């Protein structure tokens, strides 16, 4: 069994980006990421701080736009549109979840060229087209693909089961794996026999946030396991995989924390630099 170490790989990615960012910071307008937070959700505050910390390590300029949860959707859209027209802002991230009705209207308001989360329908459509158009793919799926590729784990022709079908992880990740010629099964809360589906998987990726959902008897011998789940309580952080009992049965496995999480942040910063390069070239 080998650990898919997202922490060390993310450090490599960020180290590579740092030299670019150092160079771009000499420009009249350096790259800048603005994170929009609506309300004061403690988990959202924590996530934003983690992103700021990683960005600061590589010299990426960030700003947090704190908005009241009493604002209407239209008022929040107006604030996002101001950022769209600000040529000193190259990446816009709206922290989810949003405490408003119709949150998709706010995501849709982001300029696709500044949508570093990759959630705008324009960028999602690119992901659905082919892998050559995935440059602004959602960060967690992008990070998972980078882990598989870094560890030279074959995807083509493999049966991949994705547990969880969110717009943020499950759906785009399934499409990105299809773009690489995998055979895909996507499961959700209504899947009648989850174990039967997970046992088919050469590569099993779980992204539900249900702690220890995937047990040893649900995993094929020598499968590759990537845990994208995140659950935090008074006993600490857990993933979807029953790691201690599963690890000796598989060929590769990622840990929580230290797997998909750091890769997500690294890909966010990478997407911001891609967005910057695209905007300054225009």
Fill in the keyword field for this structure:
alpha/beta; Rossmann fold; globular
Could you give the order of strands across the largest sheet? 1-11-8-7-5-6
CATH superfamily of the largest domain: NAD(P)-binding Rossmann-like Domain
Mean pLDDT: 96
Number of strands: 11
Named CATH architecture of the largest domain? 3-Layer(aba) Sandwich
Give me the number of helical elements. 10
Globally, the shape reads: globular
DSSP helix fraction:
40-55%
CATH level-1 class of the largest domain: Alpha Beta
- Note the run of SSEs as H and E: EHEHEHEHHHEHEHEEEEHEH
- End-to-end distance, in Å? 47 Å
Largest sheet: 6 strands, parallel
Gyration radius from CA atoms, angstroms: 19 Å
Which regions are unreliable across 5 or more consecutive residues at pLDDT < 50?
none
Structural class: alpha/beta
By CATH, the topology of the largest domain is Rossmann fold
Strand content: 15-25%
User: How many domains in all?
Assistant: 2
Task: Give an overview in words.
This protein folds into 2 domains: 29-112, Rossmann fold (3-Layer(aba) Sandwich); 138-262, Rossmann fold. Helices cover 41% and strands 17% of the residues. The protein contains 10 helices and 11 strands. It has helices spanning 6-24, 42-57, 73-84, 103-109, 121-129, 139-150, 170-178, 194-198, 243-246, 260-281; strands spanning 2-4, 32-38, 61-67, 91-94, 159-163, 183-187, 203-206, 224-227, 231-233, 236-238, 252-254. The strands form 3 sheets. It has a 6-stranded parallel sheet with strand order 1-11-8-7-5-6. A 3-stranded parallel sheet has the order 3-2-4, with helices on both faces. Strand 5 (159-163), helix 7 (170-178) and strand 6 (183-187) form a beta-alpha-beta unit. It is globular. The mean pLDDT is 96.
